[in-house]
Here is the input.
Amino acid sequence: MKTLYLVRHAKSDWTHDVPDFDRPLNERGHSNARGMAKHLLENGFNIGCFISSPAKRALTTCRYFAETFGNSNIKKIEDLYEPLLEDFTNTVVRIDDEYSSAALFSHNPTISQFASSLTSEVLEFPTCAVAVFEVDCEEWSQFEVAHKTLTHFFLPREIL
Here is the structure.
């Protein structure tokens, strides 16, 4: 059994005149990212592998989670910025099997679409939302055909 976490980046700051890729988190985004990571840790969740879009707001969100879980090893995947649906699947099937859990940090609208494609529910990800899926497989390469169960969907407004 594997566990997949899908995390939309925390709230970004639109007041800076920078390209979309370089947009930082705003104050609430920093607070929510720290708080959501802490919530997961304190409730017994475990993340072994951290994979992020290289965009500043996603990578910063990912760093808060990685630090909270005592892990500084973050893999940046270009395809998670402005991703297509298949970019998520292609990323998941390449995760090293030594990890029983992994978190992907990315952007809307595609992260919502991908999460919804894994369940019978329509999931809309506000910033810093986290979906947790149990994936019934021994190897990540089996992800596409494995049964997936949404076990949790955390929204910052409901827990922070």
The chain has one domain: 2-159. The longest helix spans residues 27-42. The longest strand covers residues 2-8. Residues 93 and 143 are 6 Å apart (CA to CA).
